[in-house]
Fold this protein.
Amino acid sequence: MAIQLLNGLVYGALLFTVASGLALMFGLRRIVNFAHGSLYMLGAYIGYSASKLFGFWIGLIAAGACLAALGILLDGAVFRPLHRRGPLTTLLVTFGLALIAEDLVLAVWGKDTLSLAAPSVLARELSLFGTRFPAYRLMMIAFGAIAAIALLLWLKGTRVGLFVRAASYDPVVSAVQGINTDRVSALVVAVSAALAGMSGVVAAPLLSLAPSMASDILVDSFIVVVVGGLGSVGGAFITSLVLGQINVLGVVFMPELTALLPFFLMIAVLVWKPAGLAGERV
Amino acid sequence: MPALEVKNVSKSYGGFTALNGVNLTVATGEIRALIGPNGAGKSTLIDVISGRADNWTGEVRLFDRDISRLAASRRRLIGVSRSFQRTSIFPNLTVRCQLRLAAERVGDRDGDSILEEFGLAALADRNGGAIAYGDQRRLDLALALVGRPPLLLLDEPAAGLSLEESKHLAAHLRTLAQRWNVTVLLVEHDMEVVFSIADQITVLQLGTVLAQGVADDIRRNRSVVEAYLGSMA
Amino acid sequence: MSAGRFLAWVVLASIGPAIAALTTSALAQSLIAQATFSAMFALGVGLLLRQNGMVSFGHAAFFGLPGYMLGALLPLNLLPVEVMICATVVLIGILAFIIGLVIVRAHGIAFGMLTLAVGQAVYEAATRLRGLTGGNDGLSLRLPKHLFGLSLKTLQQPAGMLTVSWLVMVAMLAIVSVFAASRFGILTEAIRDNEERARFLGYRTLLPRAAVLGLSAAVTAVGGVMFALYNAFISPDNVHWTASGSALIMAILGGSGAPWGPVAGAFVYFFLKESLDSFTTHWLSIIGAALIIITVVFPAGLAGLVPWAIALRQREAHIARA
């Protein structure tokens, strides 16, 4: 049972590192990035190629760096110029980008499933609660935990974090009070993209790589941010953990319906709280 | 019977108290102005009466009927109407179309006469988003006044208007309210407008009623002058 | 209705049968028939976009479910097949209305995210519930020899289906046009423009928005029924979100400003894809780039070209006179 909880935590941590970026971008700019799953996918594939040459850890960092750069580009070329056009335009444009990203992955890496080996240090099993548990999965949980703590410190402890929280509470008021969304958004989008990209690399040894990985993670991330409350990193954190557990428990108790459980959770929460668990809070 | 009674209304969001036990009675046919410094709770009070605010306590009565729990759409049907501080119209519908939509709902068969009344006839077939700002403000007001609602709540109707336009608006409101027997509660920063049309003035400060009376009383009230008018003069 | 308008509808309705009668290529006829299914799919998506201002990434669920429902229910012989077929469309409309009551209350832009989740839930169900859906192998439909007075053979031949489906498509377009011009249609447009204002004019806004989703799903479902009858087969691919994405692109390409926009968009999309597929494998990039360009540069789509062309001609005439 404890092992199952840990397995749930593995997927929950992964979901959080992807979905928190979506929540941050929504909080700051009131936009939904349909290409967020593609960032995760591109990170995974870049990490895959880089690890072939330089090993897993360099691959992870390279993916983070590339995706951060891509994030800055995305902010400067898409989010900023389209800011006045409303969220629907950004949603459709990022949908177009997601299609292009998929084509790119197909062209460069092919449509076959690829697998990335876990780093040798972690390619073993540990004795935990009387059973064996892969060390690599513990690393995935650690990655999620580090990301969560870093985000918490960033949002609560720095000026930029204060900006982000103020903007997600009320973009109009914070704009009036001289908070410059454009100035912080390149950083926020870069951080979100890097987190998504690194999540892709971290997930690769467990889930393997395929062009469909973008939409798989996107659907669950969307559920996480809607249920958690759009723009709320805290809400995304709690929802990710719950969804991770639901996933694992579902596999144990009702394997046929597992994939539908997040959907039922979403409907149940929305009936109860249309604005999501956290409402409008960060 | 008073048109509007607000009894002990309080509302806070976060840790901030926007309204703190406000009482207010507006007689039928009266034009009442609500003034006070920024953050005094004027717009919040309008929101409470019109059904836009939630999580507040107290009671709102319209012609002695408790409307506190009614949805906004229901309140419009029984006679509470409002305009918005930031103009609220339908940008992609024609002026005529949106006024008709408003008229149909309240059973007003003569949707087009309001076009004339607000000088919008020439713009009837233009889209709401394609007309000038001053015209949009008049459209907003016209939407609120369709069907001659017994109670009209106005949130800064003169905001963004020129001196000339404000004067015209004040005169127009005054005559319309009399002609159609509409009770008006308006929030306004433009003291010219307030003093020229309000029968009575209520001053709010930090969520409570600071003073109330006819224009001259308010002008002479020392605490009001200190709290509000003084800083404006 | 004016005589000119009536004539235009008659001409539009007769194009399909004319193509069926005049062309001999079964391949071309089959393509056009497929395009009419997609056109109805996109018509539903465009209706939602036009009357609710919302994008759906999950309409494939409403397109594919009729096939699954018929596949599962027809062997039970509960009701006459024709009744069953009509009932699936109505049921899907009601289902979407109920889902709408929940998801239209969420923040506006969240709607797109929620439709994706709804659509993928149906996809997951289609792949996992093997006993009912045949899983990834798909499900064959056992159809009777005669349907609505037509022989099944006719319905499953390109020329026959093209004729029938074209007429159904024009009927759907007519229904959507009538709806858009109705009082209720205008009310939903008003709610799309400014929901709060509509509430303060005394209108309740939740039910109309959910009703638009219901109607939009039913229109898409009619396309799905035609698809299922023609192929007598349904598979998870038909309910995958990429199918929803294509229909959304058709609607954007055609433009949601006029009811016929998404229909035109579907035909353009279809023929573009057919002609480009032999040249390039990068269809995804092409359509992705096209979507971005249209969204940013020409948000009104093909339907926006007509008023634009009229305005241009008027301006030219004006200049000529001056």
